[in-house]
């Protein structure tokens, strides 16, 4: 396939209207055909169901926040989104979503909670159950728990959450349709753990910490859901002394390379993974092609990387060298106002 459909989640504080969709033509190396896919308030994070039939979105309606479900429909001119259902409650919306096996997980930064919503084969979202955290740390932004990630273990036996406010990586099991906390990894004080991604071997994970601009290599024990830290490595040059908030982390399907976004330094760091030790070596740090790279994603072929720069409102296409892992910015980009999250259909 040379044509892939992508979706962009946004804030709708200024000119954005919701979820946008676009296409990546890998044969031509261009982004094109951007259009509005769904009108919704601040769909800042998206998660596509495993069967590629539904897309779940963060949503905000006035004083209510929560999650929406859309059916992904095929049409002659591509795909469209049809609203299916939602779950909203008073207060701020979540900031991160993960979906698997008729379950939707939601991390809420402002509430400091992890939500678990049952879903049906028809895309309906049922009322969720929540675990509210009560953590804090030494940084000015760690006055309380700020949960920024919730996701599943590779075997889907455990649920993990990153509490940026408490410097905690939390492990849960699902019992009686509720989250049962079973373990905590306490990471470096004041580091602010943000997102987690697993190596395809299922025995290691990589954690990005927003406040310290670091990646931690974690050894994972799937018998009890616990982690131990093997390595910390910086995502920005030591010479950079201004504020930087590390944003997103993604790994290639073969586990060979890790990519990390830096907001402030406005860059993407490339790391090679040692397949024996799983430790990281910095390959390069390249400009994100805009301001405040909130997220990025690899296309399904992994020949390209697409970066979303929130403050400059541009989505930038990079060619990826699959051998060295290095990135080369192309001349192709599209404008998406207040862009945050990017996802591709497989």
Brief overview, please?
The protein is built from no helices and 28 strands.
Low-confidence stretches: none
Annotation field: number of helices: 0
Radius of gyration: 19 Å
Sheet with the most strands: spatial strand order: 3-2-1-28
Overall average residue pLDDT: 97
Protein structure class: mainly beta
Distance between the termini: 10 Å
Corresponding CATH superfamily of the domain at 44-234? YVTN repeat-like/Quinoprotein amine dehydrogenase
Largest sheet: 4 strands, antiparallel
What is the CATH topology descriptor of the domain at 44-234? Methylamine Dehydrogenase, Chain H
Which percent range describes the beta-strand content? over 45%
CATH C-level name of the domain at 44-234: Mainly Beta
Percentage of residues assigned to helices: under 10%
Q: What general outline do the C-alpha atoms trace? A: globular
Give the SSE order as H and E letters.
EEEEEEEEEEEEEEEEEEEEEEEEEEEE
């Amino acid at each position: 396939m040379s044509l892939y459909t992508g979706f962009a989640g946004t804030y709708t504080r200024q000119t954005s209207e919701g979820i946008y969709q676009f296409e990546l033509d890998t044969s031509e190396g261009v982004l094109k055909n951007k259009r509005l896919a769904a009108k919704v308030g601040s769909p800042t994070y998206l998660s596509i169901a495993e069967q590629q039939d539904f897309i779940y979105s963060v949503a905000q309606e006035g004083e209510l926040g929560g999650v929406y479900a859309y059916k992904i429909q095929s049409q002659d001119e591509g795909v469209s989104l049809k609203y299916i259902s939602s779950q909203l409650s008073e207060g701020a919306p979540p900031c991160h979503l993960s979906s698997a096996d008729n379950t939707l997980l939601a991390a809420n930064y402002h509430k400091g909670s992890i939500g678990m919503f049952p879903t049906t084969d028809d895309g309906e979202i049922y009322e969720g159950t929540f675990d509210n955290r009560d953590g804090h740390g030494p940084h000015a932004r760690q006055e309380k728990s700020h949960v920024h990630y919730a996701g599943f273990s590779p075997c889907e036996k455990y649920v993990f959450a990153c509490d940026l406010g408490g410097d905690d990586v939390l492990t849960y099991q699902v019992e009686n349709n509720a989250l049962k906390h079973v373990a905590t990894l306490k990471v470096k004080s004041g580091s602010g753990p943000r997102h987690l991604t697993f190596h395809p071997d299922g025995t290691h994970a990589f954690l990005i910490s927003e406040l310290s601009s670091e990646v931690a290599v974690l050894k994972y024990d799937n018998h009890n859901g616990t982690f131990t830290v093997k390595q910390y490595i910086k995502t920005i040059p030591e010479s950079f002394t201004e504020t930087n908030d590390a944003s997103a982390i993604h790994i290639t399907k073969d586990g060979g390379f890790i990519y990390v976004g830096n907001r402030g330094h406005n860059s993407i760091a490339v790391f090679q993974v040692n397949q024996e030790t799983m430790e990281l070596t910095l390959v390069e740090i390249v400009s994100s092609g805009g301001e405040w790279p909130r997220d990025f994603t690899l296309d399904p072929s992994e020949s390209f990387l697409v970066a979303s720069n929130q403050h400059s409102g541009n989505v930038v296409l990079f060619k990826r060298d699959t051998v060295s892992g290095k990135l080369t910015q192309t001349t192709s980009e599209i404008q998406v106002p207040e862009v945050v999250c990017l996802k591709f259909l497989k």
